[in-house]
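Checklist before submission:
- one chain only
- standard amino acids only
- sequence pasted in full

Submission:
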Amino acid sequence: MSQRVLVVDDEPQILRALKASLRGAGYDVDTAETAESALTAAAVAPPDAVILDLVLPDGRGTDVARELRSWSSVPIIVLSAVGDESEKVAALDAGADDYVTKPFGIDELLARLRAAMRRVDAPGEPVIEVGALRVDLEKRAVAFAGEPVQLTPHEFKLLRLLVLNEGKLLTHAAILREVWGRAYTDESHYLHVYVSQLRRKIEPDPTRPRYILTEPGAGYRLVAPRS
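Returned file contents:
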C-alpha cells in the first residue's frame, strides 16, 4: 500500500511540481493551500507524512505543525523561503522533523522525507530509568524525580537516543545523524542548542550537569549520577 503525503503550500506551481515528483517516487499525494484546509485534510485522511510551507494565507506553518503534533506523530518537513535561524528553531520546536529552505532540490527533499519517515518511533518500547530520570519510550513520557517533564519532539528524540545508549559516548556526528538525519552531520550548533535546552529540563543544576556529560571535542554521554 502506498504511503500518503500531504503537501501544504499556497503556490500552485510548487504544489504541481511536488505532486508530480512525489507521485513519481511512489507516494499518494493530497494537497492543501491554507492552514485550515491542511488541518481538515489531515483529520479526514491522516497522512503518513506532511510537507508544510511556513507562510500560508491564513496563518503560520509553525501553528499548523504545533496543532498536528498535539494529536499526531506524523513526520513533518517544513518548506520555506525564510532562512533565518530563529525561524528554523521555531519550526523545529513546534514539532517539525526537518526544515528545507527554498529553492531546494527534489532529490534532497525526497531523501529527507524518507529519513523522517524512518524515524517514526516503533511501538512497544520499554520504560528506562536512569537515576531520578524516567523515560517511557512507548508513551513518549518523561519524568524527573516523579514530576512530568515536557519536551519538544526533537528534545525527546535526543533524550531517547541518549538513554538507549546509557554510559556510551556518542559523537556529535552520530547524534546529529540519528536525530536530525545525515544532511545535518556537520551542523553541530543544532546539537549544542538542544543539549542546553534538555539540560535545563532534566538537570537539577544545568550549569553543573550530572546526567548529560560533555566529552570535549568528541560528543556526549548520559550516565546515572553518582550519589
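Reviewer check: The chain has a mean pLDDT of 87.
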